[in-house]
Design brief:
12% strand; alpha+beta; six-stranded antiparallel sheet; 6 strands
């Protein structure tokens, strides 16, 4: 659950690229709808922070309550909106009723009635400066100074190590369906609906490949390859979690008997996952140190 606040990426892009970004949380959904309609009618796409549960154009298994999901409203007609969504390859159609339900949830972490759009773009963007600063920010967040590591044990490399420690405690902390669903959800979070893991390392590797071409840097290209390898390592963590999760019983009433017969296998399976996570922490500690060094010389 520790991540940048919803909307931080938008603010960072605006700041680093000198792009004007209008962002406002409206008092009521009526006001947000009125503003969105005016923007769409003027040909300006608008982003909304919504609860993913109501995005009915997505497959049913993705209808989960995640009230910090961003969509782009790119068109409208009577009673519905055309939506560009990162989880959909096609433009989705969302009813105004569902948009209203998704836009004002009063849920933790939600940005109710938040509307964002681009207000200005400079004639030229200094991509090299933006990339340097962005990489430096990421390395800073991943590599805490020693004095802060014990205080912020949930951040960056230390956060990965803390996660590995928690995995080893799961059999003593959780049971039944909570245990099964928790294990499987972690695997899904790495790959599809979460805030870190294999899919995100692969994305960052692709970014570093583009950055290496921008700067003509062989060192960045080599780091991009290492980042992609790291992403595949995280995907192995996901695969192992799924393998462990599938062995757990579906019925709470059957769990205690199952655990009596399978405790050793469960503990060994999760120990293997924890060791893989610890390995990722070690790899990334070196990887981000090297990336910080290379970025400082770009």
């Amino acid at each position: 659950g520790i991540r940048n606040k919803p909307g931080t990426i938008i603010k960072n892009v605006g700041k680093l690229c000198s792009i004007g970004v209008f962002s406002r949380t409206y008092r009521t959904t009526d006001e947000a709808i009125e503003k969105a309609n005016a923007l769409i009618d003027a040909g300006t796409p608008a982003a909304a922070c919504v609860d993913m549960f109501y995005m009915n154009y997505l497959p049913s298994f993705m209808h989960v309550h995640a009230p910090f999901h961003f969509i782009m409203l790119v068109g409208r007609d009577a009673g519905s909106y055309a939506v560009s969504d990162p989880y959909s390859e096609e433009i989705g159609i969302l009813s105004e009723e569902d948009l209203r339900s998704a836009w004002e949830t009063h849920a933790p972490m939600a940005k109710d009635n938040l509307l964002v759009h681009i207000s200005s773009v400079p004639e030229q963007i200094d991509w090299k400066d933006a990339v340097r600063r962005a990489i430096s920010r990421t390395c800073r967040d991943m590599l805490l100074p020693p004095v802060l590591r014990s205080i912020f044990s949930f951040v960056g490399i230390e956060g990965i190590r803390t996660y590995a420690k928690s995995i080893r405690r799961w059999p003593a902390t959780y049971r039944g369906v909570v245990m099964r669903e928790g294990v499987l959800f972690d695997a899904v979070a790495f790959e599809a609906q979460g805030t870190g893991g294999g899919a995100f390392r692969l994305m960052y590797g692709a970014f570093l490949q583009e950055a290496s071409a921008l700067f003509g840097s062989d060192a960045l290209d080599e780091l991009a390859g290492r980042m992609i390898e790291d992403g595949e390592g995280w995907r192995e963590v996901s695969r192992r979690l799924v393998a462990v999760g599938k062995t757990l019983p579906l019925d709470d009433d059957a769990y205690d008997d199952w655990l009596s017969a399978n405790r050793k296998d469960l503990e060994e399976g999760l120990q293997e996952v924890a060791l893989l996570v610890d390995e990722r922490a070690g790899v990334e500690a070196v990887l981000f140190r090297d990336l910080r060094h290379v970025a400082s010389g770009l």
